[in-house]
Amino acid sequence: QVQLVESGGGLVQPGGSLRLSCAAPGIIFSSYTMGWYRQAPGKERELVATVSTDGITNYADSVKGRFTISRDKAKRTVYLQMNSLKPEDTAVYYCWTRRGDWGQGTQVTVSS
Q1: Are 91 and 37 in contact, with CB atoms under 8 Å apart?
Q2: Across-strand partners of 54?
Q3: Sign for the pseudo-dihedral over CA of 66, 72, 75, 77
């Protein structure tokens, strides 16, 4: 299992922004599509966004227009910029690779 190092979660008010980061080993970062899933209490884990090695992105309908996924080759890091956050975005967010690796999860809480 590859170690994916996540950071950036926290507590934010509705309408606010957060940026999540996920650092991966170089060979994994350059070889596989990466992305983010999330899991809210009592719900199944769901796909949030993915980005391929050549930068093609895909988003869940619920986050389109608010979230942006990107990757920085020099830093071997994938980012999830989350804007206009809503209470229903509250969940544990997990970094993921197409190979099947998972991060440890980072909590995002949107509340006033």
Answers
A1: no
A2: none
A3: positive
The contacts of residue 41 (CB under 8 Å, 6+ apart) are none
Largest separation between any pair of C-alpha atoms in the chain: 41
- Specify whether the CB–CB gap between 94 and 102 falls below 8 A: yes
One-letter amino acid for residue 33 of the chain:
T
Asked if residue 76 lies in contact with residue 97, where contact means CB atoms within 8 angstroms, the answer is no
Q: Please name every residue paired with 11 in a beta bridge, in sequence order, or none if there are none.
A: 109
In angstroms, the CA 86 to CA 71 distance is: 24
User: What pLDDT was estimated at residue 2?
Assistant: 73
C-beta of residue 38 within 8 angstroms of C-beta of residue 93: yes
* Residue 102 per-residue DSSP state: B
pLDDT digits (tens, 9 = 90+) for 58-80: 999 999 999 999 999 999 999 99
Question: For position 26, what pLDDT does the model report?
Answer: 85
Q: Cα angle at 75 between 16 and 69, to 5 degrees? A: 40
What is the pLDDT, as a whole number, of residue 84? 98
